[in-house]
Amino acid sequence: MRSQLAKSCLAVLVAVCLSLALVGRSDARDYPTRPITLVCCYAAGGDGDLSARLWAEFAEKLLGQPVLVVNKTGGGGVTGTTFAAMARPDGYTLFLAQAGPNIITPIVSNTRYNFDSFKYIARTTIGNCALVVRADAPWNNLEELIRDLKASPNKYSFASPGATTWLSFAMRHLHTTAGVQVKQVEFQGSSQALTSVLGGHADYTFVFPQNYVSQVESGQLKILAIGEHDPRFPKVRTFEEQGFKGSYYGWAGIAAPAKVPDEVVAKLEKVTSELVKDPAFVEKAGNIAATPSYLGSKDWMKALKQQESELSVLLKETKM
């Protein structure tokens, strides 16, 4: 009797589990059927927030559901990133992924999440970062700067936008690759670092386009190297063209908790691949100094894994 009852209970349990699985798959295929939350771990008005709202504005038109940007700040981005990583993996909580919170912070800090806590769905934009100096500086390209840095160790100074920022890590990678030693002066953000260079207190910095374009165009700064070609500055060569390979540009994209269904990933990939081609999206991205640069999940994951590996090695080399 007990054996028969146990078998009956087991059969019911299996049937319930199968039903729930089928419902889950059906929900994923019908996705989305309700509003989506896009978490940004930085404050409203910043680079990350603007990138999140840009994607949300165009994605909700294609998805047929509202996309609500929620700013969960604190802990240098850890609070919001942790919240998103621990969310239910159903596609209704997404995350605006960036190098700082998703790659660098888990390497240098003890966080409840790591790189693999997320499924990286689609890259949306890049920020074409540049190494800049004052207009009256003696260098006209990266090769000339590196030559002097090698000749006079610790004579020149790099204005860092922050010790654990991606911008600072990119320059550490450059310094290590080039075999140079420089004085690194820490600042709270790109604006302060750039002000130091403009004031002659530091020799160079590495910043996003919203920080340097107007000053270059007005003749206050000049660019020695840039992440990707920019038609506004056709004579400026990239880092790679001057002998230094690496990811010398920032990026933003859409991620979700790691176990999000494949159907949801495919839907969001398709939507993102379409919206980045919209002329209105391209124009609005330009207004926030971002360049549309789509990568699907597979290619983006491959690129991010390489960047994570490079940064991990760099940390060991710099003993940070």
From TrEMBL:
Keywords, sorted A to Z: Signal
CDD domains linked: PBP2_Bug_TTT (cd07012)
SUPFAM superfamilies the record matches: Periplasmic binding protein-like II (SSF53850)
Signal peptide: 1-28
Gene3D superfamilies: Bordetella uptake gene, domain 1, Periplasmic binding protein-like II
PANTHER family the record matches: BLR1237 PROTEIN (PTHR42928:SF5), TRICARBOXYLATE-BINDING PROTEIN (PTHR42928)
Name used for this protein in its record: Tripartite tricarboxylate transporter substrate binding protein
Organism whose genome encodes this protein: Candidatus Desulfovibrio intestinavium
UniProt lineage: Bacteria, Pseudomonadati, Thermodesulfobacteriota, Desulfovibrionia, Desulfovibrionales
